[in-house]
Amino acid sequence: MEAFFSSGVIVILVILFLVLTGSFTVVPQGHVSVVTMFGRYRRLLHAGLGLKLPFLESVYKRISLQNRAIELQFQATTIDQAHVYFSAMLLYSVLDDREETVKSVAFKFVDERSFMQALTRTIEGCVRGFVATKKQAEVLSLRREIVEHVKKEVDATLETWGYHLSDLQINDITFDEEIMKSMSKVVASSNLRVAAENEGQALLITKTKAAEAEGNAIKIAAEAERQASQLRGQGVALFREEVARGMTQAAREMEAAHLDASFILFAMWTEALRHFASEGKGNVIFLDGSSDNMKRTLQELMSVNLQSMGLGKDKPVK
User: Side-chain half-sphere of 61: how many Cα atoms within 13 Å?
Assistant: First the structure.
């Protein structure tokens, strides 16, 4: 009898232990537990220690409210029949912890695998539909437009599933090997063309600046030569003016002294011959040294001198 009583106590203690352990459940932070009774939805248990009816209620599924990320790799075809390969990262999460949202997440799909398959196929189909309207040359510059298009088209569908698309990052866009080679050649030829244009522009600028400098130098030299010629002409004119003024003054003094002005011209003639001889530096100078030629030259010089003095041509020369 005592042994039977001891066994009954042990059984009762075991049952109580099972009841107690089955009555409590712990929900981690950032998670929500879905409680069902006999397979039917009952209620939600949020983070912390939760109570449930032992042997009647059970935790059907524990749903994470945290962000989740998956890698996507798929192919699309452009309107000009070029194959484009995408590598993307998808960031998504449960929309919120409201009861209806959690029920959608828990019961819309049979399991997580089915949901992931539907999500990836939806994203791929949306990207393929957008790329199919674009040309190959446009795809590389449309990363942001593709992301915005996917968010706009997919967000509404995900909300009916209880999820929210947080971000979509397109990490890599590639083409077939032949297309990549042709694109590299196009880029290389474009760079060569730009380099040639830049080199031509630099050469043109160099030549233009050199021509401008040469033209400016010619202008400066011509201006300097013009000024020099002008100064030389002014110097010769001043020299002649001073010579004429000196001859006039000398002739007046000779006339005042009642001397013949031909002495002045004779002195000038002999001085010129001396200058020719001293400055000729070996050059041959032919002069008519006859007395007739000297007389004729002196008469011409005297007539010019007398005209400058205002004596007139009709006055006899002594």
Answer: 17
